[in-house]
Amino acid sequence: MSLADRLDSVRRAQAAAEAPTTSATAAARPNAAARRRDADPFQEVKNRVHQGLIDTLGPRLYDPHLPEAELAQQVRQTLQTTIDAEQTPLSHADRTRIAQEVSDEILGHGPLEPLLRDPDISEIMVNGADMIYVERSGKLYRVETHFSNESHLRRVIDKIVGRVGRRVDEASPLVDARLPDGSRVNAVIAPIALDGAMLTIRKFSQDPYTDADLIAFGTITPSVRDFLKACVLGRRNIIISGGTGSGKTTTLNVISSFIPEDERIVTIEDAAELQLNQDHVLRLESRPANIEGRGSISIRELVRNSLRMRPDRIVVGEVRDGAALDMLQAMNTGHDGSITTVHANTPRDSLARLETMVLMAGIDLPVRAIREQVAGALDLVVQQARLKDGSRRIVAVSEVVGMEGDIITLQDIFTFDWAAGRDENGRFKGTLVSTGLRPKFLQDLTDLGVDLPLTTFINSTR
Length: 462
Hints:
- It is a single chain.
- The protein has 462 residues and is of the alpha/beta class.
- It has 2 domains: 3-202, Beta-Lactamase, CATH 3.30.450; 211-457, P-loop containing nucleotide triphosphate hydrolases (Rossmann fold).
- It contains 16 helices and 15 strands.
- β4 and β5 form a beta hairpin.
- The longest helix is centred in the first third of the chain and has 17 residues, at 68-84.
- It is globular, with a radius of gyration of 25 Å.
- Mean pLDDT is 83; it is low at 10-30 and 33-38.
C-alpha cells in the first residue's frame, strides 16, 4: 500500500461513521443510517479501538519504508492489546469481530474484505453504501454487509483505483481498475451514478482455473479440450465470443495455457487480468488520459507496438474498437496462433461486430475487403454463454471456412445439446457434442505434427 493510501485510511476512516451522507440515496432512504446504527451496536467501541490504534502506532501506520507484512503484524498485535484494555463487556466472538473489522479498514478494503476472502463469491456488486449483492454459483444474493456512508464507500473506491494509477472524480466519473490479485474493478460515481457510488468487482481465483476445472464445471468436454489444445499448438487464430459475465476471460486463460513454453507471448489488456504460467510472457496494459486529458495509451497503440516486440503469439484481453483492424492485420501477417475475446451473442454476431469495429478505426474500407480480412485471419470462434441455471458453458465451436460471394461462411464443429433438457434442480443436462463435421484445417494441423483422433468428430448422439 502506498504512503498516500495508508495516510488516507488512518486519517479519515474514524470519521466515516460521523461524516454526513451526500448521495441521493440518503434522501430516497432516510432511515438507512439508523438501520446501520442498529445493525452495528459496536460502532462506538470500534471507533475507540481505532483511535487507540492510531495513538499507539502513530507515524508507523503511514511509514513508506515499512513492509506490508510487518505493518499488518504490528496492527494486529496493537489491536489485540487495545481491545483487551476496552472497558465494555465483550464476548470473545465480539472482540474477534471488532479486531477483524478495524484491521480490514486500515489494511484492506473495509467491509468488502470478508467478501473478497470468500472463495465461493465470484462477483461483488455495491449499489450504494447500504446495498451490496454478491454472485454465488451464478446466482445473485443480497448480503447484510454495508458501508458506514457514501464517504466511506468513496474512500474505498479511491484506494482501489489509486493503487493502479487510475483516478475517479466528477470530471472522470467512470473507471476500470484491478485489485492486486487481478480481480476486475469498475466504479461509477456522481454525477453519472444518481443514487450514490457504485462498485463492481469481478473476482478471479488466486489459483487460476485449469482445463480440468472447466471440464468439472461442465464448461467443456474432454474432446473439445483436446480439439482446442490442438488448435493452439497448430497456431490457429481463435476468437472467444460471449456476453458479459459469460466466462470469456477464464476460457481465454485456459486456452492460452496450451501455448508452448518456448514461445514469446505478448498480452494486451485494459486492466491486467490474464494469469499465464509460461515464463516468456510480456504484459502490456492500456492507460487512460491524465487529469489534463493527455497521456492515454489505447489498446490499438499497444497492438501496433507489440508487432515490434518479436511476438510469437499476441493475446488481447478484449477488442472493442479500432484495435480490431490491427489485430486482424497481425493475424494475417505472420502472427498465427493469436487469441482474443469479443462481446457477441453468437459466432455470426462476433464476425459482424468485428466488421463494425474495423470501421471504427477511421479507415474507409469496402465491406468486402473487411470481410476478406476477417475470413483470412480467423480460424475458430468459441462461443460462450451464461445459462439460466447460472452455469457458464461453451455452447458452440465454429470454424471460419472462408468466403462465398460477399458472405463469410461458418460451420459448427461442436454445438451444445439443448434437447437434453434440465434436471430436477433446473440445471441443464446438455453438453457439447460433435456435429460430425471435420474442420477444413485438419490437414494443416497434421502437417504441423498435431494429430487428432478422428473419433473426436463422431456424433455419438445419432
